[in-house]
Amino acid sequence: xxxxxxxxxxxxxxxxxxxxxxxxxxxxxxxxxxx
Length: 35
Prior knowledge:
35 residues; RNA binding; PUA_sf; 1 helix; alpha+beta; UPF0113_PUA; PUA-like_sf
């Protein structure tokens, strides 16, 4: 699985990767500001 760049400092797993997770899995969006 590779991360997809969504914009400045934001990466996320693809929708297909998130759909493959278990029912009790937690999906979080991690934002970072470097600079």
